[in-house]
Amino acid sequence: MTTVIRRRRGLALLSVVVGLVLSACSSGPGQVNAAAIVGGKTITVDRVQELVRKAVDIEPAAQVLADQRKLDLLSRGVLKQLVLHELVDAYARENGVTVDGAEVDRLAGQIRESLQPLPTDGTVPADAIVQQAVNRVMDPVELARDYLLQLKIGEAAAPTLAVTMDYVALTPGGPDEPTGSLRGKAEDLARRMAVSSEEATRILEEEIAAGSQADRAVVFSPGANGSQDAGMLLYGTPENSVIAFQPSAEQAVWVVGVIRERKTDAQPNPSAAQDPRVAATLGPRLLQPMVDKVGVEISPRYGVWDIAAMGVAPSAAEATGIVLPLGAAKP
Asked: Any signal peptide, and if so, which residues (predicted)?
């Protein structure tokens, strides 16, 4: 009897939370009922709502998110996947990238077989629940196609991509430093460096002279330090840009850099060509230019598009990076 009562309470709470999350998204960025607009195509709130409800129905662990009032994580996870699908599609059309239909079908079958329900005992992290729930509600064929397209994009670029960057690494000043102050310092430094190329050089030289973790004309290649680094913001950013980003959520470090050169025909990097994980990580990052080309507008009720994470952040203050063209900032 107690189990039944708890279940009913859980369902009642879930209904309330889903209602709050979805009703908060009732207005779109450019038109009514738009959760996002990508390349002029509207992703509706109704579509996001449908998938969130379906995820809760078919993935038991999603109830954990409901109990913790974290269904907003799921709604942003769903929206991220829908936006990425449009970006992959736009990139593939523009660049003539295709994948074999039989290979797509095989991978789709593997996806169907692999998506087993997660434990509901609270041991699974929220982000893992979100990813699992999103994968379970999306069309397996669509997921497979998008993944293989991104893999192919990464495979083509990884061996000969090289980015030259001047950078400064910012670390916490001490245990008493306020939360978020490092982000503010990084963004402020990026804006000062973005005034001009000359100003960026002057600031960097000052940082080097002061003994900061800084260097000039460092060449970065995807896969040189493992597959994880292949997804960094610098690989998708054009030349003459200033970036500020947090490479890892697990470490309180921000990097501010100036992209001096971006070569797609560099000397081949054998490690990048041989490791498929590098291509799989790099592929989504290479969709970054499509954000500016086609346009991505997120309803403020969901948050903002986080260019560094290639996902949806709750607010600009919680995004994991920024990109500024050199000369765009005021002195």
From this structure: 1-34
245 in a domain, yes or no?
Answer: yes
Of 130, 156, 182, which closes a domain? Answer: 156
Q: Cα–Cα distances in Å, from 302 out to 40, 41, 62, 183, 320?
A: 18, 17, 19, 22, 16
The CA-CA-CA angle for residues 186, 314, 175, to 5°, reads 45
Share of the chain above pLDDT 90, in %: 74
Tell which residue, 37, 18, 84, 70, has the closest CA to residue 300. 37
Contacts of 38 (CB under 8 A, 6+ apart): 83, 86, 87, 90, 294, 295, 296, 297
pLDDT of amino acid 172: 86
Distance CA 288, CA 298 (A): 15
Query: What is the tens place of the pLDDT at every residue in 282-313?
Result: 999 999 999 999 999 999 999 999 999 999 99
Residues 203, 219: Cα–Cα separation, whole Å: 20
Q: Tell me the CA end-to-end span of the chain in Å, nearest whole number.
A: 68
Q: How far apart are CA 190 and CA 257, in angstroms?
A: 8
Contacts of 122 (CB under 8 A, 6+ apart): 64
How far from 224 is each of 127, 270, 288, CA to CA, in Å?
A: 27, 9, 21
**Does one domain contain both 29 and 103?**
yes
Q: How many domains does the chain have?
A: 2
Say if 297 falls within a structural domain: no
Predicted local confidence at residue 274, as pLDDT? 74
Which contiguous run of DSSP H or E holds residue 305?
strand 304-306
Distance CA 328, CA 288 (A): 19
Question: Could you give the CA distance from residue 299 to residue 310 in angstroms, rounded to a whole number?
Answer: 16
- Per the structure, the complete domain to which residue 132 belongs is given by 2-156
